[in-house]
Each structure stands twice: as C-alpha cells, then as structure tokens.
Amino acid sequence: MLTLAEYCGWAGRMYERGAPGVYFFNLFTYFEAAYHVTDTAPWDFIVTHGLTPESIKGRPASIPANWWYEP
Asked: Residue 58: which of 1, 3, 12, 10 has the closest Cα?
C-alpha cells in the first residue's frame, strides 16, 4: 500500500513520460481482510479527486526506488 505522496509521485512520473492518463486495476484487495489498512486517506483523495495532472499539481510527491527505477 502506498501513501498519497507515493501515488502522486507515481502518477506525476507517468505523465512526465507521456501517459495520457493512469488506471488502477485489481485494487479490490486493498479493503479485503488480509490487506486491511486503517489509513484510507490516499483512497479518499483518489476517489474524490482522481490522479489527474491538475489534482496532483503542488501536492507532496515521493518516488520510492525499486528494481525498475529509472531516474
């Protein structure tokens, strides 16, 4: 599960690379018992505002490094 800053960082990076939009799939597991989290703030924001270039502009963004990370 990512923080809102990480979702914004990811979406911002996709837009920088030319993506026309972002799409989530298989996120139904987020609220299933085995994966239940108590902090729903990221999803509350995403469901209300989306992750459009306009909605993430000026928001804190974080891009966690991983094996496929390209600076």
From this structure: 12
Task: Report the C-alpha dihedral over residues 69, 45, 29, 70, rounded to 10 degrees.
Answer: 0
Give the DSSP letter of residue 32.
S
Output the pTM of the full model.
Answer: 0.74
| Residue 65: C-alpha distances to residues 38, 44, 62 (Å) | 25, 25, 10
- Neighbour-count burial for 12-32, b at 16+ CB within 10 Å, e otherwise: beebeeeeeebeeeeeeeeee
Domain boundaries, the chain: 4-56
The secondary structure element, H or E, covering residue 43 is helix 41-49
pLDDT tens for each residue of 51-60 = 999 999 999 9
